[in-house]
Design brief:
The protein has 228 residues and is mainly α. It has a single domain, classed as 3 helical TM bundles of succinate and fumarate reductases. It has ten helices and no strands. Helix 9 packs antiparallel against helix 10. The longest helix has 38 residues. It is elongated.
Length: 228
C-alpha cells in the first residue's frame, strides 16, 4: 500500500465518522427548527403577542425543554466544528486543477457551498441570539400583561422595527433554505438511512421542508415590521 492510499483510507474512515455526527446533529437541529417555527408562528394568529408569549414561556420554563436546550447548544457547536472540519477536508481533496473536473455537472452549487452557507448562518445566529436569547435568558425582559410571563413579543416588535435587520433576517432564510436543501437528504445518507424505497419520499419531504420552514421564518420579521 502506498503512502497516499493509506492517507486516503485514513481520511475516508475518519470522514465517515464525522459525516455521521454531522447527520445526527443536523437532524436534531432540523427538529429544533420545526418546533421553533411552530411556536413563533403564533405571532401570525394573535397580533397582541399574548399567545406567542405564552408558548415561549412554556418553552423557557419547562425543565425538560431547558435540559434539551443544553443539548441544542452542544449539538449546534458539534455541527459547526464538524462542518468546518469536513469543509477543509473536501477543499483539500477537491481536484480543482484537473481539466476533467466539471463541478457543475457533478453537484449543485449549494452542495459545494455548505461551508459558505453555514458561515453566513453562523453570523446570522450570533446576531439572532444577541437579539433574543441574551435578553430573554441573561439581561432580562419586561413582564407582559400576564404576571410572570416576560414580553418576548415586545422584543420582537423592537428588533423588527429596523428594516435593515428585517432584510438581514429575510436574506438569512435563503442561506438556511439552501443549506437545508443539501443537508436534509445528505443527513439521511450519512446516517445510512437512505433506501431506494424511501429515497423519493425523503427527497420530497426535504425539498418541502427546506422551502416551507425558511419561508415561514422570513414572513415573521416582515409581518411584525408591517404591524408598526
Ligand atoms: C426569522 C425568524 C425568527 C424569529 C422571529 C426567531 C425568534 C426567536 C426568539 C424570540 C428566540 C428566544 C426564545 C426564548 O428565549 O424563549 C429565539 C431563540 C433561538 N433561535 Fe430563533 N427566530 C427566528 C429564526 C431562527 C433561525 C432561522 C434559527 C436557526 C438557524 C434560529 C435559532 C435560534 C436558536 C438556536 C435560539 C436559542 C434557542 C433557545 O435555547 O431558546 N432562529 N428565536
Amino acid at each position: 500500500m502506498t503512502g497516499s492510499t493509506k492517507n486516503t483510507n485514513y481520511l475516508l474512515g475518519s470522514s465517515i465518522g464525522r459525516k455521521f455526527l454531522m447527520g445526527l446533529t443536523g437532524l436534531f437541529l432540523v427538529t429544533f427548527l420545526l418546533v421553533h417555527c411552530f411556536i413563533n408562528a403564533m405571532v401570525f394568529f394573535d397580533g397582541t403577542g399574548a399567545l406567542f408569549n405564552e408558548y415561549a414561556h412554556f418553552m423557557g420554563t419547562n425543565i425538560i425543554i431547558r435540559i434539551m436546550e443544553i443539548g441544542l447548544f452542544a449539538g449546534l457547536l458539534a455541527h459547526i466544528i464538524d462542518g468546518l472540519w469536513l469543509w477543509k477536508l473536501n477543499k483539500d481533496a477537491r481536484p480543482e486543477n484537473y481539466a476533467y473536473s466539471q463541478p457543475n455537472a457533478n453537484s449543485k452549487w449549494y452542495s459545494r457551498s455548505m461551508g459558505l452557507l453555514g458561515t453566513l448562518l453562523l453570523i446570522f445566529l450570533i446576531l439572532h441570539l444577541v437579539h433574543f436569547w441574551v435578553p430573554s435568558r441573561i439581561t432580562g425582559l419586561a413582564e407582559s400583561a400576564v404576571p410572570g410571563v416576560h414580553d418576548l413579543y415586545a422584543e420582537m416588535f423592537t428588533v423588527f422595527a429596523n428594516p435593515i435587520i428585517v432584510a438581514i433576517y429575510v436574506l438569512a432564510q435563503f442561506s438556511l433554505g439552501f443549506h437545508l436543501l443539501h443537508g436534509f437528504q445528505s443527513a439521511f445518507q450519512s446516517l445510512g438511512l437512505n433506501h431506494t424505497k424511501y429515497n423519493a419520499l425523503i427527497k420530497t419531504v426535504g425539498i418541502g421542508y427546506s422551502i416551507l420552514i425558511p419561508f415561514i421564518f422570513a414572513l415573521m420579521p416582515i409581518v411584525i415590521y408591517l404591524r408598526h
